[in-house]
Amino acid sequence: MSGAALGLEIVFVFFLALFLLHRYGDFKKQHRLVIIATLLAWYLCFLIVFILPLDVSTTIYNRCKLAVNSSPAESNGSYVTLAPSKQKCFKPWSYIPNGIMPIFWRVVYWTSQFLTWILLPFMQSYARSGGFSITGKIKTALIENAIYYGTYLLIFGAFLIYVAVNPNFNLQWNQLQTIGIAAANTWGLFLLVLLLGYGLVEIPRSHWNGAKRGYLLMKTYFKAAKLMTEKADAEENLEDIMEEVRKVSESIKYNHPLRKCVDTILKKCPTEYQERMGRNMDDYEDFDERQNSYPSEKSLVKLHKQVIYSVQRHRRTQVQWQILLEQAFYLEDVAKNETSATRQFVHTFHSQEPENKIIQYFYTPTVEWYWECLLRPWFYRVLAVVLAMFSVIVVWSECTFFSTKPVLSLFAVFIQLAEKTYNYIYIEMACFLTIFFLSICVYSTVFRIRVFNYYYLASHHQTDAYSLLFSGMLFCRLTPPLCLNFLGLTHMDATISHKNAQPTAYTSIMGSMRVLSFIADGFYIYYPMLVVILCIATYFSLGTRCLNLLGFQQFMGDSEMTSDLIDEGKELIRREKRKRQRQEEGENRRREWKERYGNRDDSTRNRVVHTDQKESSFSETNSNRPLSKYTRSNGRTERDRIELLQDAEPLDFNADSINDDPLESDSGR
């Protein structure tokens, strides 16, 4: 089993990152380089989280083996001689041979740092550029990142000059490397504590509120009102941009030098706008540079960038609106089925996507009713309590992990108890659950936050390239300080435990933080305590209240604006529900027509054609005979067909007052 666990986790994490990227990105429409770069960034960050527990168990085994092979008299003071139970070390099933982990961590860490500080920022500017050629996009990306890269080079150059001039500093290359790592981790830790303080409170609270059906339904109505406003704004913005594209397309004719740029812009427009602009084209007219003023290439680049952004935003709001409607309809169905006496879940609308037969076989309406109406609320409550207990343990450990005598960090206590008995399975599970919970709190906040319309991770393949790359940058900057914080909580970091024990392979790659004592003994220890203040602020929703005061509508139960938006969203959902019911009734009428008259359709058509032929031949000889004699037999059938196929949509109606079967009464006909 040597190294097998490492290989299995490498493969598993790859498919996990691929699954998440497929959920948020669009493999068919987005550029391959964007997909590959984002996948690599997510994959490396998830890989660090999953592999680090194996590094901890391997380090504990190496410490035990070193203690058994060395006596106190032979110890040179480099390592602390431990007292293993029965003086025997058991090799863990996930043991990784010596020499593999240092190389592995070095490749993973420096690749992620290259992505987050150099490649991904450049690709962000490249993806948002409106250039029409690769050279033009690269030029735009270099110009936009000149200030970004120049700032870092200026700071680094000033630091090198200061070190070279000051005789008190005699830094070597390894120490300069450690200083660079410390600077990157300090920036990441600053952002990490902010995100962690929000996630430690919001994740348990969201699961607790998930058990409240009324709460979820009201919040869905609130989201519907906000999304409708954003949807209308996106449609209006798209109309304005398409109007500009139409004017440019009409002014620049087929033989103009910039016509290729206009054709590139037209390809990015929706299909209906392309067809509309194509019908209005008069390509036979030649352009006259002396009479007309034509837009420049720079203005076309700007227009191209606006078209890409507006089309992406319009498509995203349309898809999100449909998803929100399905969610609202489902929550309303749950509220109706809670009082059902039959204990079978009944849906108002059938699913538009074909369901899996295996799921249909096991997940019957009865099972669905028991899960949705009875078991799921209690499951969410229990899960919320467990997550809240984890959050309390994390907050306590963040405030006390610097204490080594006595050990107050609960995670360090758990690991040290397992280390005495060398229970590697327990060690790996405890480490995995700890770092996994920390990662969920941080990464879920990254997926939830939204910076206006510039950064927004939208599911169902609606995330743009800029947001995907930005998320990869955040993951690569947050994961290394997150792992160092985890090692500090468990006292596996020698900087925190103040022991001369053998460090983990991950810590050895980071280097000794003693080079910068004010960071190792100050910032890394006392700054994480701010998570207490952030948790309190999140619990009382101080950030939400501040945004609400600034004019950004947030869901707050005691706000008058929230109540108005809930009523507006409820009316929007009711209107869409009536529209969906009218569509289904029309489909039912068409289906019933096919079932009742579909078999006679061909024979009726042939009989009508034969009758028409007889009429034409007979009318030549006897024009005084009425034509109705030959068509009366099919008159009622044709009238029924016309009425059943007619789908006139009224302005409004009460769905309960309409007859379910439109074919029951013939009096109206």
From TrEMBL:
Keyword Thylakoid: no
Biased composition (Basic and acidic residues): 582-617, 635-644
Subcellular location: Membrane
Recorded GO CC terms: membrane
A GO BP entry: adrenergic receptor signaling pathway
One Pfam family linked to the record: LMBR1
Keywords: Coiled coil, Membrane, Transmembrane, Transmembrane helix
Acidic residues bias: start-end ranges: 658-669
Membrane topology: Multi-pass membrane protein
Chain spans, region Disordered: 576-669
Transmembrane residue ranges: 6-21, 33-52, 103-126, 146-165, 177-201, 378-396, 425-446, 466-489, 523-542
Ranges of biased composition (kind: Polar residues): 618-634
Residue ranges of coiled coil: 224-251
Similarity field: Belongs to the LIMR family.
Annotated protein name in UniProt: LMBD2 protein
